[in-house]
Design goal:
Blueprint (H helix, E strand, L loop, with lengths): L11 E6 L8 H10 L3 E6 L3 H4 L2 H8 L17 H7 L3 E7 L1 H9 L5 H8 L4 E5 L3 H5 L1 H12 L3 E2 L3 E4 L5 E5 L3 H20 L6 E6 L4 E2 L5 E2 L6 H12 L3 E6 L11 E4 L3 H11 L5 E4 L6 E3 L18 E3 L3 H7 L6 E8 L3 H11 L4 E6 L11 E2 L1 E5 L6 E2 L3 E2 H21 L1
Parallel strand pairs: 1-2, 1-3, 3-4, 4-5, 8-11, 8-13, 11-12, 13-16, 16-17
Antiparallel strand pairs: 6-7, 9-10, 14-15, 17-19, 18-21, 19-20
Helix pairs in contact: 1-9, 4-6, 5-8, 9-14, 10-14
The structure holds cytidine-5'-triphosphate (CTP).
């Protein structure tokens, strides 16, 4: 092991590299994991070796890199056991369309794919491929299947690809992959903790849609990712979870109760129906503050004249819940800001009578809507002191928010 790994965290990761142009970025993923204190063993597919040599990974890990466990130079006669049974996380970066298809169908025709089948460890994959391959129904079907099998997927970025096309398919940034891997490791620990057992957490997520006519609506760019991450994290820690979701584009968490609501008013009604059962309410939805005063029954026709739309306020769900709260209900809100972040969030915390608020500056790169990461500042009513956290995955941020909920619960119980 290298000197960078002196500060070990006791976590073992199998990093599998499959054959794509992004294979070189796996080196950065490896280094990031090592810097975080993880012990990493690397396996590669035969094709990956066309893009980067096993020697690179061997030099960085000090360990043999398995490509073919039948090869005479494989020093570890039980490599498949080392990889499948003794690791805390099975990470594939980059994951090609081919390896995704094989995982989804249980094909085990080389070391990486057979180890995938033989492993009990949680699996995280970071796909990278040409945009057309990514969008192909077969790939999307395979990804859906993998999600159903419990595999976590780091969505690729959109941008210019090596093949000069523009669209989704580029490997997510190495630091995002490392952050997601660390969040999964932490979630596993938390899963063991079950420290939210007995809590019933109600979460709003996604964007509301306020209809103008049968074909048009006002909405926003929320993907639901933050709310879904909170739901997954809370469920993992033993809470009973219900999500009330507006429009969402992020993958929906499996096996968590989810109620759909389209408009702010529908979301308010759905929340009010559920709230008496809840012990914690977290408002992560991006709820429209205004809706058109009326919805036209038929499609509004174009004309030469200017068109104005009268907007009227929607119910503030978070404020209503906080106002009507019973004893013991903890209420957490979000403040997505573009300036004076802390002052605005503190003001919202007091005005809406919240227990805590999660502030984020959505102008910062890596924060805000439709990205895998967030940069949040937590402010609790009892301390009023902002705690600024670094860039982290939304799942990790969700755990930090839940840590705060737990602290508030314990403080609450003492008083
Ligand atoms: N929220 C809500 N119902 C609304 C509007 C917002 O529950 N009708 C919740 C959001 O889920 C989030 C918080 O309130 O937790 C955001 O507060 P809000 O005052 O809406 O923030 P902004 O829209 O950013 O408000 P402002 O325009 O005052 O900055």
């Amino acid at each position: 092991m290298t000197g960078e790994q002196e500060n070990k965290n006791g976590k073992r990761i199998a990093l599998c590299v499959s054959g794509g142009i992004a294979a070189y970025k796996a080196v950065e993923v490896l280094r990031g994991l090592q810097r975080a204190g993880c012990e990493v063993r690397v396996a590669m597919t035969q094709r990956a070796c066309e893009f980067i040599k096993p020697l690179t990974f061997r030099a960085l890990t000090g360990e043999h890199v398995v490509v073919d466990d039948y090869a005479p130079d494989n020093p570890d006669p039980i490599a498949h056991i080392t990889f499948s049974q003794t690791v805390d996380l099975f990470l594939v970066a980059p994951a090609t369309a081919n390896i995704i298809a094989k995982f989804a169908n249980g094909v085990a025709d080389d070391f990486v794919t057979s180890t995938y089948l033989a492993s009990n460890a949680p699996v995280l994959i970071a796909p990278a491929m040409n945009t057309t391959m990514w969008n192909h129904p077969a790939t999307q079907r395979n990804l859906r299947r993998l999600r159903e099998d419990g595999v976590q997927i780091i969505e690729p970025d959109a941008g210019e690809m090596a093949c000069k096309t523009i669209g989704p398919g580029r490997l997510s940034e190495p630091e995002q992959i490392v952050a997601a891997a660390l969040a999964m490791l932490r979630e596993q620990e938390m899963r063991g903790a079950q420290d939210l057992a007995g809590e019933r957490v109600l979460i709003t997520a996604g964007a509301t849609r306020e209809e103008l006519d049968p074909v048009r609506f006002l909405s926003n760019r929320s993907s639901g990712r933050m709310g879904f991450a909170l739901a997954e994290a809370a469920r993992g820690r033993g809470a009973e979870v219900t999500i009330v979701a507006g429009e969402t584009s992020a993958p929906v968490p499996q096996a968590i109760r989810l109620v759909r609501a389209a408009s702010a008013e529908e979301m308010r009604d759905a929340v009010m129906k559920e709230i008496n059962e809840a012990t914690v309410f977290i408002a992560a939805a991006a709820v429209a503050d205004y809706r058109p005063a009326s919805r036209a029954a038929s499609k509004i026709k174009k004309s030469e004249a200017a068109l104005s739309i009268e907007l009227v306020p929607t119910p503030d769900i978070l404020a209503e819940v906080a106002r009507a709260r019973r004893n013991g209900l903890l209420v957490v809100g979000f403040a997505a800001e573009t300036g004076n972040v802390i002052e605005n969030a503190q003001d919202k915390l007091r005005r809406k009578q919240l227990d805590a608020i999660v502030a984020n500056d959505i102008t910062r790169e890596g924060a805000g809507f439709d990205v895998e990461t967030n940069i949040i500042t937590l402010i609790a009513r009892d301390t009023d002191a902002p705690v600024a956290l670094p860039l982290m995955s939304k799942l990790e941020a969700a755990h930090r928010i839940l840590d705060e909920v737990l602290r508030l619960r314990r403080t609450h119980e003492k008083n």
